[in-house]
Design brief:
The protein has 297 residues and is mainly alpha-helical. It has 14 helices and no strands. It has helices at residues 3-6, 49-52, 62-74, 76-82, 91-107, 109-124, 136-143, 145-173, 181-190, 192-209, 226-230, 235-255, 261-288, 291-295.
Length: 297
């Protein structure tokens, strides 16, 4: 049925379904759109064009990026619910948002790693040491090109496997009949800050588990083939991976897949050890596929 041909002309700011554009006029609170079955909030006024503008539908300015970043991090589920349609999130806006988040964590990784090492070492030893050399850590990361290249190369390789993992999971477990793959991929792009957070979570975990070592790529906690079996009982990997992976996987299931809380919790509990194993395997590939040697040239 063509909604545009069967509905009367309405005011320009009439509420419309974010998925199919069906005009929600003359209707009481609905659970779903009568046209496409899209789940709707009780307050239909939030679907008015004047209220549904988002940071991803108004151009690509720096201020809008940071507004979108705050919304995706503070209210990931609510943001995903209100940004399913192209009117709320353009394909270009979502793609640029994901690329900026991903590239930022790669480029800033040497600084993030150096700061994390100093904080972890200070907490494990003398807390006063946290700020004792606050400029030196950034100088070491910034002035040596080889350090920057190796660390950025490692992080690019590392975050790639998380993107591959979540893209595959999104495509495999996508079951919304009222949602197309375009809507799924838009929500996945808005999830990108949480992929970066997961990377930082892994760094925080290893820094607190063994604060006296330097994290990847200088010290990679992976040895072939023993690590593939030891990962399930290795204290370092359990501390660094289980909690951050569970939290981010839970948000992924709620925001991207749209699953109910109990199902999202079950999904995250199953995915956490699997993702930990895949991360270990990816680290082994980094060392034995020639990527590490290439970065040191």
């Amino acid at each position: 049925m063509d909604a545009t041909n069967t509905q009367p002309t309405a005011e320009p700011d009439a509420p419309a379904c974010p998925q199919c554009g069906y005009l929600l006029i003359g209707l009481n609170a609905l659970a779903r759109c009568p046209e496409c079955g899209q789940p709707l909030a009780a307050d239909l006024s939030q679907y008015r064009p004047s209220r549904t503008a988002t940071p991803w539908s108004r151009g690509h300015q720096p201020l809008q990026f940071f507004q979108g970043l705050a919304r995706s991090m503070l209210h990931p589920v609510r943001t995903a619910d209100l940004c399913r349609g192209p009117a709320q999130v353009t394909a270009g806006g979502a793609l640029i948002f994901a690329m900026v988040c991903t590239c930022a964590i790669i480029v800033l990784w040497p600084l993030i790693k150096e700061a994390g090492i100093q904080i972890a070492g200070g907490i494990a030893g003398d807390p006063k040491m946290i700020f004792a050399d606050r400029f030196g850590v950034f100088q070491r990361a910034a002035v040596r090109w080889v350090v920057w290249k190796i660390n950025c190369g490692w992080e690019a390789w590392s975050i790639l496997h998380l993107w591959l993992l979540f893209v595959v999971l999104a495509l495999v477990f996508h079951r919304r009949r009222s949602d197309d793959h375009g809507g799924l991929l838009r929500r996945l792009m808005l999830f990108s800050p949480w992929i970066a957070i997961l990377e930082v979570g892994y760094l925080v975990g290893v820094s607190f588990a063994v604060p006296n070592v330097v994290p990847e790529p200088s010290t990679i906690f992976a040895m072939w083939p023993e690590s593939l079996t030891d990962v399930w009982t290795d204290k370092v990997w359990l501390i660094r991976a289980i909690i951050p992976t569970f939290i981010v996987s839970l948000i992924f299931a709620r925001a991207v897949l749209g699953w109910r809380p109990w199902l999202a919790v079950l999904f995250a509990a199953i995915l956490a050890p699997v993702a930990m194993f895949l991360t270990m395997l990816w680290s082994l590939l980094f060392m034995h596929s020639g990527v590490l040697d290439l970065l040191y040239r």
